[in-house]
Amino acid sequence: METVMAWFHNYEYPAIVLLLMLGVIGLLIPDKTLLHSVGYLSFTGELSLPLSLLALVQRSITGITISYGLSRFLDTRILVAGGA
Fold first, then answer.
1. Where in the sequence is the domain holding 43, given as residue range(s)?
2. Domains in the chain: how many in total?
3. Is 28 helix (H, G, I), strand (E, B) or coil?
4. 2-11 helix and 31-44 helix, angle to the nearest 10 degrees
5. Cβ proximity of 63 and 21 under 8 Å
6. Cα angle for residues 67, 72, 76 (degrees, 5° grid)
7. What b/e string do you get for 2-11 counting C-beta neighbours within 10 Å, with b at 16 or more?
8. pLDDT at 8 over 60
9. What share of the chain is helix, strand, coil (3-state, %, to 5)?
10. Of 50, 56, 11, 49, the residue nearest 34 (C-alpha)
């Protein structure tokens, strides 16, 4: 978690978008914990609340679009082959 907080302090909003987007796609990133961290940093004034909300909306749109694209273009054959 210290590495993630270091990313937040160094890269701020792009790190929020990237890390949380990867969590939406399905990688093993604790996105719920990161959401709590963003909320806390916004509460303490280290991050701007409007910019944090904008970054969170952006990560949702981007992550869901990538997830949809992967499932649409990779087809269900991969899922069937992996489960058999």
1. 2-83
2. 1
3. coil
4. 50
5. yes
6. 105
7. eeeeebbeee
8. yes
9. 85, 0, 15
10. 56
